[in-house]
Write a structure and sequence with these properties.
By secondary structure, the protein is mainly α. The chain has nine helices and no strands. Helix 3 runs parallel beside helix 5. The radius of gyration is 18 Å and the shape is globular.
């Protein structure tokens, strides 16, 4: 009973950090892109969906962990450098928010082509690895941006931050892959992306402001 109480108390204290990781990760991942389109396509085809979802989620988690632990270890003894990186992260987040707001003014529809012959599991995994790892934005998002925000957390809260960030990524890919049949009509409507991008812009603005105040007022 005491262990359970202690865990719940720790979890309660970590909730703001978990929420920061979750909202940051979701804000970065929900934009229309090649990876999301590929996951949706495989979900609509019902072809190797579990493998695609697992590869995307595990890659994100690995890169986020590398970013948080690597930046924390490298910059932990250099608070000024860490603060500078956090401010740069705030600027990037604010820019992403502005781009989301811009997309909301001219929304797109997410289309997934269903044509094509069935392909092997190996081909599918290689394709999703290529789409994920050959995109330079994935490193900016996961290693640099998520890493900067995560490394800024207290050492005992960095693991909880990764729980939120990695959990959000896994939740998104599971929802997109296995819920594709239900979600595709919604995602094909530009108004849905307008609402989503407005929410993303709001979350990005909140995170950027939080980073800025943490550095300047902390």
């Amino acid at each position: 009973m005491q262990d359970t109480t202690s865990f719940l108390s720790t979890l309660q204290a970590a909730l703001p950090t978990i929420t920061t990781g979750l909202t940051l990760s979701l804000s970065l991942i929900v934009a229309i892109g090649a990876q999301n389109t590929y996951v949706l396509r495989q979900g609509l085809r019902r072809e190797h969906v579990l493998a695609v979802v697992m590869v995307c989620a595990l890659l994100d988690m690995a890169l986020m962990t590398l970013g948080v632990s690597g930046l924390a270890a490298t910059l932990g003894q250099h608070p000024r450098a860490l603060n500078a990186l956090a401010l740069a992260g705030a600027a990037v987040v604010a820019w992403y928010g502005a781009m989301a707001l811009r997309r909301a003014l001219a929304p797109q529809a997410l289309q997934a082509q269903l044509q094509g012959e069935p392909q092997s599991l190996r081909t599918t995994v290689l394709q999703v690895l290529g789409i994920s790892l050959l995109n330079p934005h994935v490193y900016l998002d996961t290693v640099i941006l998520v890493g900067a925000v995560g490394a800024k957390q207290a050492p005992d809260l960095q693991g909880w931050f990764l729980v939120g960030a990695g959990g959000a990524s896994a939740l998104w890919f599971v929802t997109l892959g296995f819920g594709a049949r239900l979600l595709s009509p919604l995602f094909a409507r530009p108004v849905a992306w307008r609402v989503l991008d407005l929410l993303v812009a709001a979350m990005m603005g909140h995170i950027a402001y939080g980073l800025w105040t943490q550095v300047t007022l902390g």
